[in-house]
Write a structure and sequence with these properties.
The N and C termini lie close together (about 10 Å). By secondary structure, this protein is α+β, with helices and mostly antiparallel strands. Strand 2 and strand 3 form a beta hairpin. It is elongated, with a radius of gyration of 21 Å. The protein is built from four helices and seven strands; from the N terminus they run E-E-E-E-H-E-E-H-H-E-H. Helix 1 runs antiparallel to helix 2, helix 2 runs antiparallel to helix 3 and helix 3 packs antiparallel against helix 4.
Length: about 140
């Protein structure tokens, strides 16, 4: 992205200088969106059964919430390499835990009697978006 400059200021020596503002790097906003998806999905119902729902906060959703906090730090930290690592960690956790949960349920009861809840789907979507954000952050800004 192009840098913009703010109005010129005068230094005590009489020289003028402009402060350059950095634009947002590609992937930062999508990482923030992934964080919100994982944040909300972590505490919503993960599994719907005829006997009731299983909330994410009762199991693996708590771990995805912890990874989400690292993802928020990755969206705000100025070091791009650290942001890439934190986005990748969020993506791996937010993909692995829901997929493990579905695989575990399929192994226990098959496909009868349960459905994935909205929280599970939101966390999976947030994991995919976090992985895409990590790749975009790793590639860096596109030069014009």
């Amino acid at each position: 992205m192009a840098t913009t400059s703010s109005p010129a200021t005068t230094t005590p020596a009489g020289r003028t200088r402009t402060r350059a503002r950095r634009g947002a790097e590609p992937g930062r906003r999508s990482l923030l969106g992934a964080n919100f998806l994982v944040l909300f999905g972590s505490f919503m119902p993960w599994v719907d059964t005829p006997l009731g729902t299983v909330l994410g906060g009762q199991g693996a959703g708590l771990w995805t919430f912890y990874a989400c906090m690292l993802g928020f730090a990755g969206a705000m930290v100025p070091l791009r390499a650290l942001a890439v690592a934190q986005a990748a960690l969020l993506g791996v956790v937010a993909l692995a835990l829901p997929l493990w949960q579905v695989g575990h349920l399929l192994g226990l009861v098959g496909t009868a009697g349960w459905m994935p809840g909205p929280g599970l789907v939101l966390v999976l979507g947030g994991g995919v978006l976090a992985c895409v954000s990590a790749v975009r952050l790793h590639r860096g800004p596109v030069s014009a």
